[in-house]
Amino acid sequence: MDKRFWLILGGIIALLIGVFVITGGKADNSGSNFAGEPTEIQDDDRIVNPNASRDVVLIEYGDFECPGCGALHPVLKQMHQEFADNVTFVFRHFPLTNIHRNAFAAHRAAEAAHRQNQFFAMHDLLFENQEAWNGPSALDAQGVTVEQATSIFEQYAQMLELDIDQFKADFASEDVANTINSHVSSGRTLGLNSTPSLLLNGQSIPTPSSLEEMRQLLQAAVEEASQDS
């Protein structure tokens, strides 16, 4: 066998490893094709305020185990209140499973809660209690195992008074995994590789460093949309 054969084989193996990382330990892209333009709102998007104006749309690609996303969470939550009518806020799954070992399970928990109309209630619990379920990291080689984290997520489901049997079934379902992978696929299409990643009216923007900076960005976008209408 010549050198070219081994180069091709190595490329195939590398591709399969990449798919494995993206899907959170399962080399299966079924259900991960994203329909439509990823900069536009999709049917499977998780929208904080679905009745808000669509003139300004902020899409966050987030990872529930990402410290940066956790730090941004209270800022965005404040913006949800201040711009509830004028900005549509969208969250998309983007678990970085190669560095956040419990992330995919956390996103499963949020999607399972969505099946009982409690996505953002679970979303808030996950971000606001990251330290309780974080997986192993460079700073803490022990961390929390996926099994331990899953047990914690079930406690959150009980706190939200979800049907726990349905939650467990949805948590483990292929449909939930496919939804998460679909969001990841859309992010990859956009060239994203980190979290949090923000799109304001389809344009990638740097993560604001403060509440005031975020407020100014959104206010400017609202004013521009008002002038254009």
Description:
The chain is of the alpha+beta class and 229 residues long. The protein has a single domain, classed as Glutaredoxin, CATH 3.40.30. It has 9 helices and 5 strands; from the N terminus they run H-E-E-H-E-H-H-H-H-H-H-E-E-H. It has helices at 3-22, 67-82, 103-114, 119-128, 130-133, 146-159, 164-171, 174-189, 211-228; strands at residues 46-47, 57-62, 88-93, 197-200, 203-205. A 5-stranded mixed β-sheet has the order 1-3-2-4-5, covered by helices on one side. Helix 3 (103-114) packs antiparallel against helix 4 (119-128), helix 3 (103-114) packs parallel to helix 6 (146-159) and helix 3 (103-114) packs across helix 8.
What's the short version?
With 229 residues, the protein is an alpha+beta fold. Helices cover 52% and strands 9% of the residues.
CATH superfamily: Glutaredoxin
CATH-defined fold name: Glutaredoxin
- Low-pLDDT stretches are 1-32
Beta-strand portion reads: 5-15%
What value does the average pLDDT take?
87
Return Rg in Å: 19 Å
Terminal CA distance: 65 Å
Quantity of strands, as a count? 5
The first-level CATH class name: Alpha Beta
Instruction: Indicate the overall shape.
Output: globular
Share of helix, binned: 40-55%
In DSSP terms (H or I, runs of 4 or more residues), the helix count works out at: 9
* Element-by-element helix/strand order: HEEHEHHHHHHEEH
The SS-based structural class is alpha+beta
